[in-house]
Each structure stands twice: as structure tokens, then as C-alpha cells.
Amino acid sequence: MALQLFDGKGTPLERQRFTWRELVQKQISKLDDDAFTRVRVILMNGIESEAVRFQHLAARMSAPLRESLARIRRIEHHQETQVNWLLGADHSPLETTIGYEQVAVEVTAAIARTEPDPYVAQALRFAILEDFDHLYRYSALMDRLTGMDPNNILQCYTDILPGRPTSVEHRSPENDLCEPWDKVKVQPLTKLHTLTLVSGEQQTHDYYMHYGPSFADPVARQVYAEIASIEEQHVTHYESLLDPSLSLLEQWLLHEANEAYNYYGCVQQESNPRIKAIWERMLDYEIGHFHHVAELLKHHEGRDPQEIFPDPLPDPFPYASNRDFVRKVLVDEVSMRKNGTRFVPLAEESQASIDYREHMSSQGSPTEIVACDYRWLPGTELNRKAAGF
Q1: How many angstroms separate the CA atoms of 298 and 126, rounded?
Q2: pLDDT by residue (tens digit) across 13-46?
Q3: Which contacts qualify for 54-60: CB closer than 8 Å, 24 or more apart?
């Protein structure tokens, strides 16, 4: 069933309250829960984090909206807390990193397969191959530091293979920009897809910046530094797709619609009944937020919010393995590069990016060093030694 944002009012703001025990609930398990439950937890934490970040920025730009922003932002913060605290303490920072890259690969691939705008779909496919390679480099790092099998986290949903090498992903900043879509002509689904990926990539960047310095191994620290730089590029890449003429209230309404839409997808597909109940509660809260902001749009801009979201939204993207799709993109587009806002063959890459990359890696590329002679095989280090590898 499609989601119609205007069919119900959701939970009123005055009833959106939490206790501390509600905020900090039983954690998911990396062994007992399906990997896509963790994918949903990580993605929804990123989307909530983006909502809080945006509302803080909006409050600095609009005095009339500050009270409403403060009320909803406090709720969003508590929602983010409840979602993020679902990650289990049995996940090490490196295991969680593997989970983050699985989110990047599977969510981006699923969205790319359903994206109606050809240019946006191309931008998504371009970035998939870079996240795919990050997963491979972090898997090599896990092997170096612990001898553990990253498939304990991935659960066979996602391949562990090189993508577009991280060492060649570094671009001069102007070549990370994309052509923005037109808010009048673009389909609402494209708006939601774009904001979902901005949210996910911003969260991933922040996580790597926070945990990278916590490693003692010097190569691990450098790998996190190198990949965090690419995640910053990815945030630039995706956010440049957004139409800069969106008003502040249009952007806020888009954020609330995106949260509701993604929670709706979680409700539809969650396999853990306890976690599904959380998604259902969050969905009702976000529909309440959406209607509150819709009224603000009417009051302050004299606009009908149904002009922005006129029809029921399509079914959300599926949480499922995209192995065949990613492999095809890898074969067809691994050599693609950027020149300005254009996606071009290898021979047409911007010289500015080549010069930038050569300087950054003039003393070596950590992601190349960590993956030297690495080839993923099932099982732990002891299992591979027994097999003669």
C-alpha cells in the first residue's frame, strides 16, 4: 500500500514523549538479528541526525520558526537517541563500520534501481562503486587487525570485492558537484531519494571522523582518514543535486516527508517484531511533524503543501541484496570519472582531479597499503590457514 501523507494526522506533538527507559531499549544482536535490521537502524539514525542538524541551521536563519523548530527538534533528538542506541554493544567500531558500508552499498543500489531521473540514477551508480570499494578496504583492515570475517556482519547479502579503487576516487572539489534537479519538474520520489542519501553519507562521514582517531594501528588511522575524505566528497556530490531555490519551509517539509517515507519502508519490511513496533511509533510521530510543518507552510508562505506532495508516494525501496545489480554496474562503469558536473570516460577526467590526487597520495595511499595481497575468503584467519592460504 502506498503512503499518502495527507490521509492521517499522526501523533499530535503534545503526545510525543519518551521516558529514559523508552529511549534506551534492548539492543539488536549482530548474530541473531538479520543484517537488514541493522541496515535500517543505521540508515534511520542518519536520517534523524540530518533532521536535527537541518533544524538547528534553520533556527539560525528564521526567528518566526524558532519555537516550532525547538519543539520538533527535541522530539527528533529523542527519536535519534532511541534508534541509535539499538546498535548492540557486541559491535566493535570496525564491525559497525562494515555495517555502515553495507548500508551505503545496499541502500544506494536499491534507490538507484528505482530512481526515475536518469541523471540522478547515474550519480547514484557512480557513488555505489566507491562505497563498494570502501567495504573491501575496511574488510582488509579487519583482516589485518583481528583476523575476523566481515561476513559475520554482512551475512552473505553483500559481496566483498574491489570497486572503483579508493585511491582514484579523490577529486578536485569542483568535480564533486552535480547538476541540481528542478523542484518544479522533478518527481517527489527523486527529492526523497536525494535527501536519504545526503543523510546517510553525512552520518558515515561523521562516524569515521569520530572513530578514526581511536585506533592505535597507524595504517587503520590513515585508512579512516582517507575514506572519511571520500565521504565528505559524497556529501557534496549528493547535496549538490538538491535545488538551491527550495525555501527553508520547503526543505523542512521535505525532511519530514523523507523521515515518514523511510520509516514507512521500515515498517513494511522489518522482521523483528519488537523493532517493527518502534518503526510504527516513529512513523506516527513523523506524520505528526509533517502536518505541523504543512500548516506552517500555509501560514508563512500561503502555499498548499499538497502542491509539493500531490499524490500517494510509491512503495519504498526494498531492503534486499543487490548483488547482481552492483556487479553489472561494476563491469559497465568502474572506469567512469567526473569532469565538472559530467560523468565521463577515464580519458576525459579533469586534470585538476588528477593533480589533486597525485599530491594527496604522493607519500602513499593507505587504502592501497591495507589491501595489498588481500583477497576475501570465507571463514576466519585460522580457517584460511588450515586451507593453506
Answers
A1: 38
A2: 999 999 999 999 999 999 899 999 999 999 999 9
A3: 54/251, 54/252, 54/255, 55/252, 55/255, 58/248, 58/251, 58/252
Helix axes 323-333, 118-145, angle to 10 degrees: 100
CA distance 60 to 66: 8
Count of residues making up the chain:
389
Dump pLDDT digits (tens) for 300-358. Answer: 999 999 999 988 899 999 999 999 999 999 999 999 999 999 999 999 999 999 999 99
From the list 220, 94, 141, 143, the residue with the least C-alpha distance to 381 is 143
Question: Taking each helix axis from N to C terminus, what angle separates 35-59 and 66-84, rounded to the nearest 10 degrees?
Answer: 160
**Nearest-angstrom CA–CA distance, 334 and 376:** 20
**What is the DSSP secondary-structure string of 23-35?**
HS-PPP-TTTS-H
Rounded Cα–Cα distance for residues 158 and 324 (Å): 10
- The answer to whether residues 219 and 276 touch, using CB atoms and an 8 Å cutoff, is no
Compute the distance between CA of residue 121 and CA of residue 125 in angstroms, rounded to an integer. Answer: 6
The phi and psi torsions of 233 (rounded to 5 degrees) equal -60, -40
- What's the rounded Cα separation, in Å, for the pair 80 and 100? 16
Q: Which one, of 332, 335, 330, lies nearest residue 346 by Cα? A: 335
User: For residue 116, is pLDDT > 80?
Assistant: yes
